[in-house]
Write a structure and sequence with these properties.
Elements (H helix, E strand, L loop, with lengths): L1 E13 L5 E13 L3 E5 L6 H9 L6 E6 L2 E2 L7 E4 L11 H5 L1 H5 L4 H14 L15 H14 L4 E5 L7 H17 L3 E5 L3 H7 L2 E5 L6 E6 L8 H5 L3 H13 L5 H7 L3
Parallel strand pairs: 3-8, 3-9, 6-7, 7-8
Antiparallel strand pairs: 1-2, 1-4, 4-5, 9-10
Helix pairs in contact: 4-5, 5-6, 7-9
């Protein structure tokens, strides 16, 4: 079953002096039930634009997006968004922050409260439920943001570089928490990341986008077991080959002529 689908999506924005900027052009792909796909590409190639279209925040200039077989025509309850910053409300406790989406959607208060507490326990935040955001570390705040995203029980998670603001060790822990949660709950996710290793160890497939206007220029199926154990995946010998292919597509690597020019005389 296709949980999220883009059909020939093009997005244009008004630029300076009446010019038109094409952010993405003729993009089409789908994300199946329980699948995790990572999007990688140069800055400004339209990755976040695709997430905004999938969530209903943007309407594409051409083409359509579908969630659970329904055309996306505005913000919908099937999708939850997690951004780079946790955006926790400082005047609400951690539990109250996790409950925010359920209150907006007017879900059953008692059931939502129990779900929030279960999520906080799963993310090792149970004893901090009555604390305020400023009393938590950056990693704990991101785990709380992930719990808030899951509390509304979305069909699709849209994750826009959710771990880019934390240190390397915390990032590894958060990757583990996310991977375990997605597999256990059989959640579908579309993840934006600039970390090639993160893309490989968390995903079933990685889609590579070109420079603007963004198009899909490669699709890499990650043939490594244990998607719920990213630490195991890190050690798989296939990882280096996938990263090398991604680097080639993104034109990342050695440039001898440039390197020589930088050498002292």
């Amino acid at each position: 079953m296709k949980r999220l689908e883009y059909r020939n999506v093009t997005m244009r924005f008004a630029g300076a002096k009446g010019a038109t900027v094409t952010a993405i052009e003729n993009v089409g792909f789908s994300v199946a039930d329980g699948e995790v796909i990572s999007l990688i590409g140069p800055s400004g190639c339209g990755k976040s634009t695709l997430l905004n279209i999938g969530s209903g925040l943007y309407a594409p200039t051409e083409g359509e997006a579908y969630v659970d077989g329904e055309r996306v025509e505005g913000p919908n309850e099937h999708v939850a968004f997690m951004l780079q910053k946790d955006l926790l409300l400082p005047w609400r406790t951690i539990e109250q922050n996790v409950l925010l989406g359920t209150e907006i959607r007017k879900l059953d208060p008692a059931a939502s409260r129990q779900k929030a507490r279960d999520l906080l326990q799963a993310f090792k935040l149970g004893e901090f439920s009555d604390r305020y955001p400023h009393q938590l570390s950056g990693g704990m705040r991101q785990r709380a943001a992930l719990a808030r995203t899951l509390a509304v029980d979305p069909s699709v998670l849209l994750l826009d570089e959710p771990f880019s603001a934390v240190d390397a060790q915390t990032r590894i822990m958060l990757q583990h928490d996310l991977a375990q949660t997605l597999v256990k709950a059989n959640k579908t996710a579309l993840l934006i990341t600039h970390d090639l290793l993160e893309a490989v160890i968390l995903s079933d497939r990685v889609l590579v986008m070109s420079k603007r206007p963004g198009r899909i220029i490669d699709e890499i199926v990650i043939d490594i077991p244990d998607r719920d154990h990213p630490l195991k995946r890190r050690r798989d010998p296939k990882v280096a080959g996938y990263i090398a292919r991604l680097m080639d597509q993104l034109d990342i690597g050695e440039h001898p002529a440039q390197d020589q020019a930088k050498e002292p005389a």
